Amino acid sequence: MRNLDEHTITQAVLARNANTSDERLQQIMTSLVQHLHAFARETQLTEQEWEKGIEFLTAVGQICTPTRQEFILLSDTLGLSTLVTAQNHKKPEGCTEATVFGPFHVQGAPRYDLGQDISCGLPGVPWYIKGQVRDISGAPVPNAILEVWQADDAGFYDVQKPGLDPHDYQARAILQADSEGFYHFKTIVPECYPIPHDGPVGKMLQAMNRHPWRPAHLHFMIISPDHERLVTHVFREGGEYLDSDAVFGVRSSLIADWVEHPAGLDPYGLPCPTYFFTLDFDFVLNPVSR
Ligand code: BEZ
Ligand code: FE
Is the CB of 76 under 6 A from ligand 1? Predict the structure, then answer.
């Protein structure tokens, strides 16, 4: 195949890619090539702009480490993560909605018993969280596993803190709901935070005149053998950035009251010398279709 030009190159690449036996790969690569070429044609992309794009993607790759995932940030800030989440988690009305996973989940979080404090002594306003995991019929989902992770009261995750050993987990936990699906634990109230913006994705946001902030939230991943895995957040009613989340993750059904209480007895009947917050949030899981 010779003498390809702007009119014939797309078909030539598609023909060259036609020999894979993996049908899904074939479909994805065909669509990717068609859309990339259409993008270059539509924008009449210049060589300098193409070079800039390559430099940008190179920088995105180069800043990645085991704890810094710039490609996820890129996907999140372009809305691709929310699109993929939305199209893969269409659920019956009444199920808890999913939202973006984000880059700050880590494997191997410590296990805690129900009622324990997962904050590892971080300073902050005490927060008592409880709720029930149920299925779409309203029946409790017994013994579901809940993974929880959150930022601290300055808006940082443990993995973002220089000098902290990767095994010094803070404010992340694995808990198991009881036989009636109930769960409860103590932590501290997380703050809003900017997504990491000292790299190429931050530069992109700045160039687009966008802010990097996320509204305050708590992450949950809920796993039960007969149900679809739920990856979601609980956001704070009345909090900042609910309508301009840098990663487009807010859903109205995931916004809840984080209720403030004066100093006094905490929900466990123990004295709490400072004001504290409570959150009551139930999760409704979608059964897996078999
Ligand atoms: C997060 O909520 O942890 C998050 C999600 C997307 C980008 C950055 C952080
Ligand atoms: Fe987060």
Answer: yes
